[in-house]
Amino acid sequence: MSKNRRKKSKRKMMIKPRIQTGFCILSAIFILGCCIYYGSRLVKYYKIYNPKSETGETLMTLASSISTNSQIVYEGDGLYLENGNYIYKGEKVNNYVLVNNMLFRILKVNSDKSIDVVLNDFINKIEWDTEYKVYDKSSIKEYINDKFLNVLDKNILEKTTVCNPKVDELSKANCSDYTNNDYVRLLGINDILTSMVDNKSYLVKSSEYVWLYNQTDSKIWHTSGYNISNSDASKRYGVKPVITLKNNVILVSGDGKENSPYRISQEGEEISVGTYLDINDDIYIVYEVGDDYYKVQSDRLLNSTRIFDESSNDYSKSSLKKYLEGEYLNSLKYGDLLKEVDFNGETSKIGILSNQDFKFNNNLKNYFLSDKLDNNVYLYNGSLVSSRVNVKHEVRPCLGISKDLNIMSGNGSSMAPFIVEV
Questions:
Q1: Of 128, 144, 257, which is closest to residue 202 (Cα–Cα)?
Q2: Element (DSSP H or E) covering residue 23
Q3: What is the tens place of the pLDDT at every residue in 252-280?
Q4: Beta bridge mates, 236
Q5: Gap between the Cα atoms of 326 and 334, Å rounded
Q6: CB 55 within 8 A of CB 242
Q7: Mean pLDDT of all residues in the chain?
Q8: Nearest to 350 by CA among 372, 377, 329
Q9: Interior angle at CA 360, CA 255 and CA 340, nearest 5
Q10: Which of 21, 253, 338, 397 sits between 20 and 30 A of 5, alpha carbons compared?
């Protein structure tokens, strides 16, 4: 054998081990990378679904509690399991949960353990828009995204699902098209239909009209008692926002009943929009939070009806304003808690609600708002109507309250308001 052939043979023998060594190294790196990647994901999801407190105590997520501790039903009212989702159906279901001290109802626990919830009561009655517009460009979508979303703790939220906003006929409503662009939405046709048992649902009431996000080519769908109808966009119906809670929200207490709703762990300000305050045995609900103040609305109406004014529909010039800022305010023994804030463009310690303000406790009806309508004023009556200024109606006072509060007890819910020291 020649020297050249022997050299080539040696080089081939040397190259093969190098290729094999390189392949082994690359394989080892790949396997190690997979172990690190999937191992970290395993640890991540183990921590999500098996959370522990700082002391090492095992905690339970709300989704896990519902899926493991609730009875699944196959007919009648209760919790159903369908395609990996836990869905509440029927009229009488224990699916109440407090989020930011506002009472919500659980629509369903999704297969990824995120939770869709809807506000138990509507926060206002407003137009979809002054004219027909698609949902993404409507003023009602702007209202819930700009005004309502800002009062929530976004750390516990993920983007919620909207399917097929355009529905020409109820029989053709389906969820083949999905978008996940926003953290808050309205109820949809499918939410209502899915929740029905024997034409009854916890989502609807016999005399209630609530906007849905679905629309036809010229009308907007809404609930009409236990039915679903459509109307012009300029109508004023209820607004019930829907949000989606992350799959790792921790259950603190409660069993889902109305008098014992699920409470979840949240960080941030203790007093937020929707919080109930007890001041000298008078109950108020926070509806706006400022840098150094809370604006609160009374949870009851005045003991007697009053007129707005003899002739003026301008609240700043009305006899109602003079009464509230004089005789009524002097009757309140709240000390230094009262604070001057902006009510309808004027600074005062007391005022009344406007069209755009959140309105909690919709059992209160027929009270004056500060907004004008031609020569009349608006009334909030479960819907929005108008009245002559010299006709007696109910009055619902609102106050400016300093943030410098001493909370003695309570948890801020309607069942246990924060007791404020005066």
A1: 257
A2: helix 3-49
A3: 999 999 999 999 987 655 899 999 999 99
A4: 127
A5: 15
A6: no
A7: 88
A8: 329
A9: 125
A10: 21
pLDDT band at 53 (very low <50, low <70, confident <90, very high): very low
Q: What is the DSSP string of 139-204?
A: HHHHHIIIIIGGGS-GGGEEPEEEE-SB-SSGGG---SSEEEEESEE-B-HHHHHHH-BTTB-TT-
Q: Give me the mean pLDDT over the 185-203 stretch.
A: 95
User: pLDDT band at 9, cuts 50/70/90?
Assistant: low
Locate 163 and state its tokens: 């399917």
The conformation of residue 61, written as its DSSP 8-state character, comes to B
Give the angle 180-159-109 at the CA atoms, nearest 5°: 105
Give the number of other Cβ atoms within 10 Å of residue 108's Cβ: 22
What is the arithmetic mean of pLDDT over 119-124? 94
The Cβ-side half-sphere exposure at 227, using a 13 Å CA radius, reads 3
Radius of gyration in angstroms for the set of CA atoms belonging to the chain, rounded to a whole number: 29
pLDDT band, residue 242 (cuts 50/70/90): very high
Q: How many CA atoms within 13 Å lie on the side-chain side of 193?
A: 14
Q: Give the model's pLDDT for residue 163.
A: 85
What mean pLDDT comes out for the span 354-382?
91
How does DSSP classify residue 391? Answer: S
- Residue 380: closest CA among 287, 259, 241: 287
Dist CA 269 CA 65 (whole Å): 26
pLDDT value of residue 80: 97
Beta strands 418-420 and 276-279 are parallel
The whole-model pTM stands at: 0.83
For residue 262, what are the contacts with CB-CB under 8 A and spacing of at least 6? 62, 65, 96, 97, 98, 106, 251, 253, 254, 255, 256
- Residue 322 is inside which H or E element, if any? helix 319-323
| Strand partners for 184 | 243
Dihedral of alpha carbons 130, 312, 390, 287, sign: positive
Task: Name the nearest CA neighbour of 99 among 279, 282, 243, 210.
Answer: 243
